[in-house]
Amino acid sequence: MVRAPCCEKVGLKKGPWSPEEDQILVDYIKRNGHGNWRALPKLAGLLRCGKSCRLRWTNYLRPDIKRGNFTKEEEDAIISLHAKLGNRWSAIAASLPGRTDNEIKNIWHTYLKKRANPEEEEETPASKKKKQQRDDAESKLKPEPVSSDSSSVVSASYSDLSSLDNDSGNVAREEMSFSSGKIGTFDERFWFESLWVDDSAESVDLTSFEAPPAAEEKGFWLKVFREAEDLENLTQERD
DNA sequence: AAGTGGTCCAACCGCTCCCAC
DNA sequence: AGTGGGAGCGGTTGGACCACT
């Protein structure tokens, strides 16, 4: 059977989005949400495929997207999660608020893969330089850790964290669940907790998401690593 | 200054999954 | 239970940008 095209291709625009198109899409979603991606471009007045709109929104226009360089902690989290989850970028992205699967996939192929498996591929001078630039920028931006103790926790490996006191991260593990039993799809409660959202709210409003204060970052990453551990345990149980 | 090669990242493609009917 | 449509996911590509020669 021939698969139907995702949309009527004739006359639809492809390639980079213009600021005007971005504005139209953002305005429309702000007003109406994105109930049906396929119908959205027509309703919004965009000459784009619904798929393209969804991608543009999820990877670029979403208000909760965190732009800018990945921190060392984020990179370490990606490497740890990739070791556990493999190329399941969406599952990895679910543990990194504000980061998209596309972005994580890109950064992995660009240089984290090499960092994780240094024997496979030598670092090129250019990638070394780029990394140095990132490290420099990061060291200028990043505040000093509250104490040497806390910084050691943040940079600890995933496996090291499993031995830490459960209470320190205040993780309500019994509340974690996975929708449809699909590994890597987090229950909304994960976001209530991870995004510092008031859990008395009736729904998660990601547009109001703000990155945790630096002082709370440790708890956040601790939680992320723990959730990843839960994912692994769940996978083993299922197998 | 021009040419070349490497890197980065936005966007597309095609496949799979999920769900309604 | 089977089918079709929509959404989501991962792989891949193309072009802009930058550094080096």
Would you mind describing this structure in some detail?
The chain is mainly alpha-helical. It is about 50% helix and about 0% strand. The protein has helices spanning about 20-30, 40-45, 50-60, 70-85, 90-95, 100-115, 125-140, 150-155, 160, 190-195, 215-239. Helix 4 packs parallel to helix 11 and helix 8 packs parallel to helix 11 (about 215-239). The longest helix is centred in the last third of the chain and has 22 residues, at about 215-239. It is elongated, with a radius of gyration of 20 Å. The model is unreliable at about 1-5, about 120-125 and about 140-215 (pLDDT under 50). The structure holds a DNA duplex (21 and 21 nucleotides). It comes from Canna indica (Indian-shot). It is found in: Nucleus. InterPro entries: Homeodomain-like_sf, Myb_dom, Myb_TF_plants, SANT/Myb. This is Transcription factor MYB30.
Q: Which SSEs are present, and which pair or pack?
A:
Elements: H1 19-32, H2 40-44, H3 50-61, H4 72-85, H5 89-94, H6 101-116, H7 125-141, H8 148-154, H9 158-161, H10 188-194, H11 217-238
The protein binds a DNA duplex (21 and 21 nucleotides) through residues 1, 3-4, 6, 14-17, 36-38, 49-52, 54-56, 58-60, 87-90, 101-103, 105-107, 109-111, 124-127, 129-130, 180, 182.
As residue ranges, the low-confidence spans are 1-5, 121-126, 140-215
Coarse structural class: mainly alpha
Helical region count? 11
Rg, rounded, reads 20 Å
Strand count: 0
Shape: elongated
Largest sheet: none
Order of helices and strands: HHHHHHHHHHH
Count of distinct structural domains: 2
What distance lies between the first and last C-alpha atoms, to the nearest angstrom?
A: 34 Å
**% residues in beta strands:** under 5%
Helix percentage range: 40-55%
The chain-level mean pLDDT equals 61
Biased composition (Low complexity): 146-171
Pfam families: Myb_DNA-binding
GO molecular function: DNA binding
Region (Disordered): 116-178
